[in-house]
Design brief:
The chain is an alpha/beta fold. It has one domain: Spore Coat Polysaccharide Biosynthesis Protein SpsA, Chain A (Alpha-Beta Complex). Helices cover 34% and strands 17% of the residues. It has a 7-stranded mixed beta sheet, sandwiched between helices. A two-stranded antiparallel sheet has the order 4-9. Helix 2 packs antiparallel against helix 4 and helix 5 runs parallel beside helix 6. The chain is globular and about 45 Å long.
Length: 241
């Protein structure tokens, strides 16, 4: 099995400095995927806890948003062609280890901008039962950022959008402080030219462990409802072009 990291120019793993327990767990997960920490290949992002809400509903949500934004900025500044982002509670089941490497390799032969190995999508827009294994094109909302990839063309506009979210009030119609998965969903809804792929079936999930971010129902996450409404408006406008 080829290491998952072989399919991407850089892999970054987000881990709070004081969560040594998760650092041990994610290191074991990397080994299972044939990966080890190595400069320029697979790198740890040592995150610090936030001390202010900054308009977010919790310190954890604020910190998670900032961590993803910092990693994306770093990839842009280093000229990275493709970036794999992994959170430290990512889990790939043993039965899926070879499958995930095959799917990662398949990205080299097709167009994509976002690729989610782990995802939760709401009904009725969710994955259809019986869909063939592989990558599925998708333009709806996605919860979780446990394991996803982006490539270079989307980095600059995505960073601009996330930075703008930090300057707006919460609940702003085009996006303010919110969970990062909601922000990615709103960006994707506003920029349908960027192609999103979802792994079918889901190949990564969040490991059960003490959370540093409060968990809420999918439909209540700020940004998700707004993004679903925005996506519907964009689809209607495109049909009328």
């Amino acid at each position: 099995m080829a290491p998952l990291s072989d399919a991407f120019a850089l892999t970054r793993v987000i881990n709070l400095r004081d969560r040594a327990d998760r650092r041990r767990e994610i290191t074991a997960q990397l080994h299972a995927l044939g990966m080890d920490f190595a400069p320029g290949r697979v790198e740890l992002y040592a995150a610090d806890r936030m001390t202010s809400l900054g308009g977010f509903d919790s310190l954890g949500t604020h910190g998670c948003f900032r961590s993803h934004l910092d990693i994306l900025r770093d990839a842009r500044d280093r000229g990275v062609d493709s970036l794999l982002v992994m959170e430290d509670d990512c889990e790939v089941l043993s039965r899926d280890l070879s499958r995930i490497a095959d799917l990662a390799a398949a990205l080299r032969t097709r167009a994509w901008h976002f690729a989610y190995f782990g995802h939760i999508v709401p009904p009725p827009e969710g994955m259809k039962p019986g869909a063939a294994p592989g990558w599925v094109e998708y333009d709806g909302p996605v919860q979780t950022t446990v394991l996803y990839a982006v490539n270079r063309p989307v980095l600059a506009p995505l960073i601009d959008y996330l930075e703008a979210c930090l300057t707006r009030p919460g609940g702003h119609p085009v996006g303010g402080p919110m969970p990062v998965d909601g922000a990615l969903t709103m960006f994707r809804a506003a920029r349908p030219e960027f192609l999103t792929l979802l792994a079918q079936p889901v190949l990564a999930r969040q490991r059960s462990s003490r959370s540093d971010i409060s968990v809420r129902r999918f439909e209540l996450i700020p940004g998700i409802r707004q993004a679903m409404s925005l996506a519907r408006r964009i689809k209607r406008s495109l049909r009328n072009v």
